[in-house]
Design goal:
2 copies of one chain form a homodimer.
Chain A lengths: L3 H8 L38 H15 L11 E6 L2 E10 L5 E2 L2 E2 H14 L4 E12 L4 H18 L2 E10 L7 E10 L16 E4 L5 H8 L18 H8 L8 E6 L4 H13 L2 E5 L7 H10 L12 E5 L4 H9 L8 E7 L6 E4 L5 E4 L12
Parallel strand pairs in A: 5-6, 10-13
Antiparallel strand pairs in A: 1-2, 2-7, 3-4, 5-7, 8-11, 8-12, 9-11, 10-12, 13-14
């Protein structure tokens, strides 16, 4: 498994970031490598980190031109279709191996897109499924994946309404990738967007992080280290509905983001940038299962950068944060929800973690991904 | 390039189809090979022919279970979202080579999905784009494809609103696949569906067939035969709007289908089956460019099975067929539109072609595809 992103990181110049707020610890800050220094795709371009962001900014947006309407593409878009507000999101899945503890590429593909739609507060309704299969793939493998997709869709309350299948003659016959696209209806009064995040907002994390990444890693060739960690893949639309349905009303929830590729850190960094706010959280408030913490320690990873498939971060009005937190803890996918930090006026665009010894450190968007082909 | 579908066809038993109407010529009829005789994916499973249909019927639908709602997935679905009727469609593109006369994978991906949405009479509004790239792909290649997508989207009047990029470490570094999913708004009074096709309806073809398939084939390794045929890739939403906008009203157009994988023959066969009607057309009425006819003759192909990317077949009330035809001919993408046949009471589910010498032959859904990786 090529860890190209790590190679790239080690060859990149390390510079002090310009324009950071005074007093911010810039240790470990990596200067994003300009796209023009690459002439080929590397693994990190698909990792949801800086290289992905650069590919969007320097290649996709200029090349799409007016068709992209100048907007930075996000995980999900809001469309005005007639009198309806519709959430619309797509994701491709290139997981290796296809099957891992707690799930397979099938439930990832359903839950991943359901969750992107749910993060806009929408009720997911319908999904499309587009498969690219390699010649020689065993039908039994495809059948197991598709069966899992059917069950996951039923569990998430979405219909699989249209699809496509293509076959390639490249590869070794084990390849199965799937792209799911979802639509959902955004209820009246619900408006979730980075632009609604305000200083003072509480940051709530819905549960323990790192399970999915470590579950996949545990079955990767050469990385077996015997853990009983299972992927946390789950549909979050029900949890979101519970959060929006408190007596405080949906308006107190300002923004949601599921913490997938790049982990919780990537979600917080992206939102700090797009909302133009600082985010500060307390490291010891972040729930991490002990086996995940051990595996991360063994592998030299930070759990905040490891992928999840059933966790979200929420930005909530401080006056209603406890009420929303209670609603989350009453839901089966939010038992371990915790307020981990808050939005601050200082250091806009920067995420800082307060460590156990009272220091703060800057949390940076990873360059690529710690583990390719994870979702 | 593996032509696995041809191998499969040659090993399949040739039997007389049971239950065909008396008097139908069953020469050349191939018994669909049951899925249970395969245990692995072959190229034809992605070809849009019988093998694709079997994969849907015998694997996808049973495995999806209730999530598929018992409905056979089609190229595009109609969703009721609030008070809006929305067309929703997805397609993956695995074209080899990426660039060919008249276009590249980028405009195919935009136009293909725009057209699937337009075939429901919808006005295409927004598309998502999901890329799966191989490590080592030249950014310049990606850039050219993406630029083409931007121009094609602008030409088709759609916005590219959300997307995803994943990178794989398999393959030789030349791989680029893209999945586009589109949504469009279906105007009031527009209802296009196979169930509206009636005996007596005229069958209108929007222009000459086979250009795309022959254009791609002409640049395939080992298949160069020097022709100036360019792909017909084009967005058909404007042509559809012209057809629905005649004084006769949108109701006279009963059903539309773009003739892509599997060619015009696959579109007619699928609609004859799903509408439960017979279709009869006159071979010499079908426009085919002379270089395409020559190339097909040289390769032993029938143009009716060769892929198109900018042609549709329409089923229109006979009293309004001339008016709709005139509207098509006034549109730049319909100059060569022609009434090629009609829907008949006889032989439900069967398509027959009337040949130049007055005979009729049964037109069958191809088993796989004549040319893999064409769209």
């Amino acid at each position: 498994m090529a860890e190209t992103d790590a190679d790239v990181a080690s060859t990149g110049p390390v510079e002090t970031q310009q324009g950071t707020a005074p007093g911010v610890d810039v240790e470990g800050w990596t200067c994003p490598m300009p796209l023009r220094d690459h002439d080929r795709i590397v693994a990190g371009h698909g990792g949801g980190g800086k290289l992905s962001a650069e590919l969007i900014e320097h290649l996709f947006l200029p090349a799409f031109g007016p068709a992209a309407n100048g907007a930075t593409p996000t995980d999900a878009a809001t469309l005005e279709l007639g009198s309806s507000r519709v959430a619309f999101s797509t994701d491709s899945f290139v997981v290796d191996p296809l099957f891992f503890p707690g799930g397979n590429i099938g439930d990832l593909a359903i839950n991943g897109t359901v969750n992107d739609v749910a993060m806009l507060g929408a009720i997911p309704l319908a999904l499309s499924t587009a498969f690219i299969l390699e010649e020689g793939l065993e039908l039994a493998v495809l059948g197991r994946v598709v069966q899992t997709m059917g069950r996951a869709a039923t569990a998430a309350g979405v219909q699989l309404v249209t699809g496509d299948t293509k076959v390639t003659d490249t590869g070794d016959g084990s390849g199965l990738t799937v792209t799911t696209t979802g639509v959902g209806l955004i209820p009246d009064r619900v408006e979730l967007a980075p632009g609604r995040i305000r200083p003072g907002d509480k940051v709530i994390l819905s549960g323990q992080i790192g399970d999915h990444g470590i579950a996949v890693m545990s079955v990767r060739e050469g990385l077996q280290f015997g853990t009983d960690i299972a992927s946390d893949s789950a549909p979050l639309a029900g949890l979101v509905a519970a959060m929006l349905g408190t007596a405080a009303g949906p308006g107190v929830v300002h923004c949601l983001r599921d913490a997938t590729r790049g982990g919780m850190a990537a979600s917080l960094c992206e939102l700090a940038t797009s909302a133009g706010v600082g985010i500060s959280y307390v490291e010891r408030s972040v729930p991490v299962a002990e086996p995940v913490r051990s595996a991360c320690s063994f592998l030299g990873l930070d759990p905040i950068h490891v992928a999840n498939e059933g966790k979200l971060v929420a930005f909530v009005d401080p006056d209603a944060a406890e009420e929303v937190l209670d609603a989350m803890r009453d839901h089966e996918l939010g038992h371990q929800a915790a307020i981990i930090g808050e939005v601050v006026d200082d250091h806009p665009g920067i995420v800082v973690a307060r460590t156990g010894i009272g220091a703060t450190r800057v949390v940076d968007l990873p360059l690529g991904e710690q583990l390719p082909r994870i979702c």
